[in-house]
Design goal:
51% of the residues are buried. This protein has helices spanning 2-29, 54-72, 78-104, 112-130, 157-179, 185-206, 223-244, 253-270, 277-280, 282-301, 312-318, 323-351, and strands at residues 145-147, 151-155. Strands 1-2 form a two-stranded antiparallel ribbon. Helix 1 (2-29) packs parallel to helix 7 and helix 5 crosses helix 10. The protein has one domain (2-351). The protein has twelve helices and two strands; from the N terminus they run H-H-H-H-E-E-H-H-H-H-H-H-H-H. It starts with a helix and ends with a helix. By secondary structure, the protein is mostly helical.
């Protein structure tokens, strides 16, 4: 268990003290945020703020995870390595998008189709590899069964599992990307969700079938090591949030948002809590839904809008809410969603 504390502490330290160094490097090179002209006018003051801060989130979380294993002598797990591979690949995709924006000095990086293609490819590789590498108990990092708060009796099979993982990863990474529109909003919400997965991983380890056999035990391959990774991600995001909170000194960019979205999907899949990701990441779901509703209503009505602007946080900005007020209230919503999700997880265990 101590590797969880070590991982979280190291990633927090690296992120907290590494972020200002990255800020200076990015500022010196002129890698600043490009602001859309059609967005809220208050955002124009953020033009030029260093972006691509997701680099330090990824580096800090990897430092925390691997150094904790080096210190404790515990072997890394295949499950965590697969999630890490997904984080790095999606972070790299986001980095290319951010790089194109700052190099062109326009808010146009990769096209939507290019992003989806990259996300689909990396998610498919993660899904295809995840159903292999079974341990001595026959458990692979990813299950062939659909999971809610644990595996259900609905068997998907290899092909459908890969398709389902692609859907999960693309939806979650884009959801975090859409949420990352105000200072600290996506970062703070991500911290809460990662902490939830940390608790779930520890609980599944303690009540695992290898340790506590019974009809209510959990059959998950590497729950404790996934909890270590979740702690690393939570620590890295917390340290970054110190500098990303309003007024932000740095933005995570697509480098961070795509990586964090992939991390959330990967943790949910490896912990056999796929559908539980919906309430745990409720804020991301709500914000993504606002964009879908806005676009569908616009097309159906021939140009009318439900919201003043989508994603939802910008609607409240244009309604006169202050940025800090929106972020704090949305954090409250995120916290309530996480609490509800954890309640569902625990209620299912008690009900057995």
């Amino acid at each position: 268990m101590r590797e969880i504390l070590i991982a979280g502490a190291i990633s927090l330290f690296v992120s907290l003290f590494g972020t200002p160094i990255l800020i200076r490097v990015l500022a010196k090179r002129g890698y600043g945020q490009i602001i859309r002209d059609d967005g809220p006018s208050s955002h124009h003051t953020k033009r030029g703020t260093p972006t691509m801060g997701g680099i330090i989130i990824i580096l800090a979380s990897l430092s925390g995870y691997f150094l904790s294993h080096l210190i404790t002598g515990v072997k890394v797990s295949v499950s965590a390595l697969l999630v890490i591979g997904l984080i790095i690949s999606l972070g790299s995709l986001g980095f290319v998008d951010d790089w194109l924006k700052v190099s062109r000095q326009k808010s146009l990086g990769l096209t939507g189709k290019q992003k989806i293609l990259g996300q689909t490819l990396f998610a498919a590789v993660f899904g295809a590899l995840g159903i292999h590498f079974a341990d001595e108990d026959g458990l692979s990092p990813l299950s062939l069964y659909l999971s809610t708060v644990r595996d259900t009796s609905i068997k998907l099979g290899a092909v459908l599992v890969v398709i389902w993982i692609v859907l999960m990863v693309t939806s979650t990474s884009n959801g975090v990307n859409l949420t990352d529109g105000l200072d600290g909003l996506a970062t703070g919400a991500s911290v809460m969700t990662f902490l939830a997965f940390l608790l779930i991983g520890v609980w599944e380890f303690g009540e695992g079938c290898a340790r506590t056999p019974g009809i209510n035990c959990y059959q998950v391959r590497d729950p404790l090591d996934i909890a270590v990774l979740a702690a690393s991600l939570a620590g890295a995001c917390t340290g970054f949030l110190w500098w990303n909170a309003s007024p932000a000194k740095i933005f995570m960019g697509d480098t961070g948002s795509l990586a964090l979205g992939g991390a959330l999907a990967g943790l949910a899949a490896t912990l056999r809590t796929e559908l539980l990701l919906i309430p745990l990441g409720g804020l991301f779901v709500i914000i993504t839904a606002s964009v879908i509703i806005q676009r569908l209503y616009f097309k159906v009505t021939g140009g009318k809008r439900v919201f003043k602007m989508a994603p939802l946080q910008h609607h409240f900005e244009l309604s006169g809410w202050g940025e800090v007020t929106i972020v704090i209230r949305f954090w409250i919503v995120a916290g309530l969603c996480v609490a509800f999700g954890l309640g569902l997880f625990y209620a299912q265990w008690v009900a057995k």
